[in-house]
Amino acid sequence: MNVLFPTVIHQFDVPTFKQVQKDLIKCVYEERRKDPEGVGVSNRGGWQSSSHRFDKESDPLSKFLIEQLVNYFQKNRILKEGVKVRFNNWWININKKGSFNVKHNHPDSSLSGVFYLQCPKDSGKIVFESPHTFTRAKLYLYYNSSLRDSLNYHICMGFDAIPGEFFIFPSDLLHYVEESGSRKDRISISFNIGL
Question: Residue 54 pLDDT > 90, yes or no?
Answer without folding.
Answer: no
